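queue> pop job 88
queue> type: inverse folding (structure -> sequence)
queue> payload:
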């Protein structure tokens, strides 16, 4: 009896010991893994409640129509590349440099001779009215209030003229090439006339993509998607302002025969600077340099272009090494935290573009949601810069990171 009582007292001592972690019901013990924690569902009711960008994701998932959420969430095939984008960050760790005066951390930088208050850029995302009634206008106003560069998709649901007016300064115009040159030249001229100084040529969807997850969501959506996305010869392009008057049809997007000569044709058609988006190899980076592009954009379309199973952050080092400082390098795909952004900058990126993260904010709370996402990411980046001993964007370097395996 005495031994049993002593044993119970000893076990109580062990459980209460700080060496073993938390003790009360529902908290961690030292031998438990963090991923076993099951928290109750919680939806924030205002942007100010958010702890990180994933709080906005939870709200977006709850408020968006099923198929619209599927469009936002999808990868290709079995979502191999989508998953790889996030896993890539786990393979890079941070190396903190202590005893550096980081009382005043600056996020100021420059991109194609344009001063920026942050290296965080709003990536082009099409059809934003599918996520919020104000769509690209809410995004533009958020970019304006927070001082961020915005890229506008050419499948925008709002005209470039109205978006630029809302932002108060030009956007970068993202451009999907078409095999009907009259359509291409019409859009390029319209973007340039509206004030855009940069065109972002997307080259990673020339053969289409197999978005299985999207179609899984579509088939369980109880609405008739044909109401908004008519299956006729013109299809949904009728609803896209940048295609107005071009006579474009979906078949015009078949660019499987496109070669690097398209860059020359693009340069002859516009005075805008040319950025090539979708580069993931040293070989293509070399071709970009040889064609005289103004910047290179590392991207796998957020895991929506191909099932390579290769994370965008993993693509970055070989592209940066090939470019060797001759032109700026941008990157997107999978960025969710300030630490993610810091890792890309340390690997040589000049700017980091976010897509899903700000769309989650847009879907959840409109302009206020986008503003809060940007505010949080800036704050997180500034904090990690202080932790790592980097006072400016220029101070972030290879010494601040290491790689596992």
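queue> result:
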């Amino acid at each position: 009896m005495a031994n049993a009582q002593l044993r119970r007292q000893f076990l109580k001592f062990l459980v209460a010991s700080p060496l073993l972690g938390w003790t009360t019901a529902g908290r961690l013990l030292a031998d438990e893994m963090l991923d076993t924690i099951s928290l109750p569902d919680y939806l924030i009711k205002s942007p100010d409640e958010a702890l990180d960008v994933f709080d906005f994701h939870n709200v977006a998932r709850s408020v968006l129509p099923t198929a619209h959420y599927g469009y936002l969430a999808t990868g290709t095939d079995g979502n191999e590349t989508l998953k790889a984008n996030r896993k890539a960050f786990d393979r890079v760790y941070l190396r903190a440099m202590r005893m550096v005066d980081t009382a005043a951390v600056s996020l100021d930088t420059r991109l194609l001779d344009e001063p920026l208050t942050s290296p965080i850029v709003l990536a082009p995302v099409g059809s934003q009215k599918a996520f919020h009634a104000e769509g690209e206008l809410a995004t533009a106003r958020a970019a304006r209030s927070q001082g961020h560069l915005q890229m506008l998709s050419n499948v925008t649901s709002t005209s470039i003229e109205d978006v630029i007016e809302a932002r108060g300064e030009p956007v970068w115009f993202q451009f999907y090439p078409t095999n009907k040159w009259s359509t291409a030249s019409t859009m390029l001229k319209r973007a340039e006339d509206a004030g855009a100084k940069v065109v972002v040529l997307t080259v990673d969807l020339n053969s289409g993509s197999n978005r299985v997850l999207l179609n899984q969501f579509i088939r369980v959506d109880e609405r008739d998607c044909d109401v908004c996305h008519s299956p006729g010869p013109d299809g949904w392009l009728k609803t896209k302002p940048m295609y107005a008057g071009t006579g474009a049809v979906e078949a015009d997007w078949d660019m499987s025969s496109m070669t690097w000569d398209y860059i020359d044709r693009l340069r002859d058609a516009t005075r805008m600077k040319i950025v090539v988006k979708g580069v993931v190899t040293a070989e293509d980076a070399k071709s970009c340099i040889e064609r005289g592009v103004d910047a290179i954009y590392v991207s796998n379309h957020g895991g929506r272009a191909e099932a390579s199973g290769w994370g965008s952050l993993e693509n970055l080092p070989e592209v940066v090494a090939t470019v060797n400082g001759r032109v700026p390098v941008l990157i997107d795909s999978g960025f969710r935290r300030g630490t993610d952004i810091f890792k890309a900058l340390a690997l040589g990126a000049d700017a980091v573009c976010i897509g899903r993260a700000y769309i989650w904010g847009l879907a959840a709370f409109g302009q206020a949601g986008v503003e809060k996402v940007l505010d949080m990411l800036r704050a997180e980046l500034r904090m990690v810069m202080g932790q790592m001993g980097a006072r400016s964007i220029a101070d972030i370097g290879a010494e601040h990171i290491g790689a596992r395996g």
